[in-house]
Design a protein that fits this description.
217 residues; alpha/beta; two-stranded antiparallel ribbon; 6 helices; 7 strands; elongated; binds zinc ion; Putative transposase in snaA-snaB intergenic region protein; Cas12f1-like_TNB; DNA binding; DNA recombination; DNA-binding
Length: 217
């Protein structure tokens, strides 16, 4: 029998995903690059006379840019979700507050929110089992010792003053998501094979990651 495998995935802006296996996937859509041409064409449209040929041309141009963005995003999300579904039996993600989309008026942020939502839908459709865990403290908690390490959005590295763990903040979050997920099942309810990733292994991975980061400093 093939041993079962589980993974925790954190979604973000710098990396589209960072998972508890230590893999990160960069966001293929450079938001700044993407928004510039959109804004330019939108300005063109507003400057041109209603019903004019030039305005119509600009509107078509805008539609093409939109289509291109949508297709690139779809393609990327399909490939990534298929890879996670094929390589794992259980995938854990954090529950994304849908309210963020309304509350946050920044365009790039709202684009990312809807993008993550679509990605999670694809995952749900393809994975054998997709489990959402609460997003509470996934960024703050130290994945090795549980110590709370609050950090602003610009802080990219998780540094724990208690156990000295130093890893990427999104990697730390993804391990927390995995641990939360495994806890939901509970050791008693979870098939033994699912415990491929034990807390000991997780902390060993963290140490390895720490050494890698320190080497490049
Ligand atoms: Zn710690």
């Amino acid at each position: 029998m093939i041993s079962k495998k589980s993974v925790g995935i954190d979604v973000g802006i710098k990396s589209f995903t960072y998972d508890s296996d230590g893999y990160s996937t960069p966001n293929p859509l450079n938001l700044k690059k993407m928004l510039k041409p959109l804004a330019r064409v939108q300005r063109k449209i507003s400057r041109r006379k209603k019903g004019s040929n030039n305005r119509l041309k600009a509107i078509h141009h805008l539609q093409r840019i939109h289509e291109k963005i949508v297709n690139r995003r779809k393609d990327f999300q399909h490939k990534l979700s298929t890879a996670y579904a094929n390589n794992n039996d259980v995938v854990f993600v954090e529950h994304l507050e849908k309210l963020n989309m309304v509350k946050n008026r920044r365009l790039s942020r709202s684009i990312m929110d809807s993008s993550w939502g679509m990605f999670l839908q694809k995952l749900e459709y393809k994975c054998k089992l997709l489990v959402e865990v609460s997003s509470q403290n996934t960024t703050i908690n130290c994945s090795r010792c549980g110590n709370k390490v609050p950090k602003g959005l610009t802080v990219r590295i998780h540094r724990c003053g208690k156990c000295n763990l130093v890893i990427d903040r999104d990697y730390n979050a993804s391990i927390n998501i995995l641990q939360k997920g495994l806890k939901i099942f509970g050791q008693d309810n979870l098939p033994q094979e699912l415990w491929k990733v034990t807390p000991v292994e997780i902390s060993m991975r963290s140490v390895k990651q720490e050494q890698i980061i320190q080497r490049f400093r």
